[in-house]
Design a protein that fits this description.
Oligomer: single chain
Structural class: alpha+beta
Helix content: 25-40%
Strand content: 5-15%
Number of strands: 6
Largest sheet: 4 strands, mixed
Radius of gyration: 21 Å
Number of helices: 7
């Protein structure tokens, strides 16, 4: 039914489907036509972002795309669909669960009950394969701390802030990777003692974790925010180092 134009590779990380996570996923590894839904969340100002009324009219948008199609098709606006539009001030009052509830309800139907598609002879399931966005927005959506100066502020591991500048590999003994079971324990601790501000960067549970085939501990990042945002600065530092230290002294 779908053709992304991509062939799976064993040694080259070209696409999301090349991850070991996808190759062993209980749904997507078995049902090749299962709908792979990617969500994206971000806030945006509808008024002057520099004026005195900034943030009053700020909105949050949740969008989705289907990851079965080649990037040249998924990158055009017609294939990026609006899923929910939120007044961000309301999130402080009602929380994210009230926004996610109808979305999660539909996703559970898609996960457990087959749907019929007119252009396809069979029946298909589907679920979330990835949630992307800037780190602040994703932490807010997933229920993690929104301050990146906290002792524990990373959603993928329990590395402490003092080690951020010296730890570069998950094989480092100072790194404890976040797991589904560990995250569940942290959420339960918060529920039992609501006076705690957070437990190892977790502030509260996320409704998306009630899905059968997705969990917020599934490790995927938005390369645009995590790499491209600092790539120019990093490239400059490396170039200066090579020129002044390596080439000049050789």
């Amino acid at each position: 039914m779908f053709n992304s134009g991509h062939n799976l590779k064993d040694v080259v990380y070209f696409d999301l489907e090349d991850r070991l996570y996808m190759k062993s996923h209980p749904l997507f590894s078995k049902e090749k036509n299962a709908l792979q839904i990617q969500l994206f969340y971000d806030d945006f100002e509808t008024a002057n972002p520099l004026g005195s009324k900034k943030s009053i009219h700020k909105l949050g948008g949740i969008y989705f795309t289907l990851r079965h199609f080649p990037p040249k098709f998924n990158s055009i606006l017609v294939n990026i669909h609006l899923c929910a539009l939120i007044h961000t001030q309301d999130l402080k009052t009602y929380g994210f669960d009230s926004i996610l509830e109808p979305i999660v309800s539909d996703l559970k139907v898609l996960e457990t009950e087959v749907i019929e598609v007119p252009v396809f002879s069979g029946r298909i399931h589907g679920s979330i394969v990835q949630v992307t966005g800037d780190n602040l927005g994703i932490h807010y959506l997933f229920g993690f701390v929104e301050s990146f100066s906290a002792r524990y502020c990373y959603r993928f591991c329990l590395t402490e802030k003092v080690d951020f500048q010296t730890v570069f590999s998950e094989d480092d003994p100072r790194v404890t990777l976040q797991t589904k079971h560990m995250h569940s324990d942290h959420c339960q601790t918060i529920q039992l003692n609501p006076t705690l501000p957070h437990v190892h960067s977790v502030k509260h549970a996320c409704l998306l974790n009630s899905l059968q085939y997705f969990n917020t501990t599934d490790k995927s990042v938005d390369i645009m925010h995590d790499i491209l945002g600092v790539a120019q600065c990093e490239e400059k530092l490396v170039t200066v180092y090579l020129y002044t230290v390596v080439f000049y002294n050789s």
